[in-house]
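Q: Sequence in, structure out?
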Amino acid sequence: MKQEQEHFKNIPGWGIDADADNEPTYPMKNYTGDDHQRSNWDRPALQKPSVEVLHSNERPTYSAVIGETVPPTRLSGMVRRYAFQFSESSYGHWLPLLLADRINVVEGIADDLAKGKIPNIFVERGWNAEWKYNRPVLIQKMVMAAATLGAVLALYQLKKRIKTK
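A: Exactly. Output:
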């Protein structure tokens, strides 16, 4: 170990926390011996949900404070309910939640259109800033999106021709 310390001592800041006398927070910490007692506390009263709140199936109750601003609704809500049937350690939980987020974006655009508001997707996705500060990457993304769309349409047309023969 000593040999390793000698090897790295020329790196600025290496081992700065190795010396307890030079540890920056040491004078501020007042060790009272009660550090092991901090887990003995009373749980705060739980917030009562007024809307449907999804929570992990690995925990019996909600957290003390829960978010209620966007309850699960429509198709994205169905996908979220499905995802919460699985453990947080599985793809069956996280991948459906990612899909639900994408579905929720489409539902939001549909809501805007239903209310007579035309969403400015170019601005909302930050493409103005991308055009101003990172133009080559934005152009590359647009070319890739156009190529992908073209390939999907070409495959669709090919499949359509094969069916009609």
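The CA atoms of residues 43 and 64 lie 8 Å apart.
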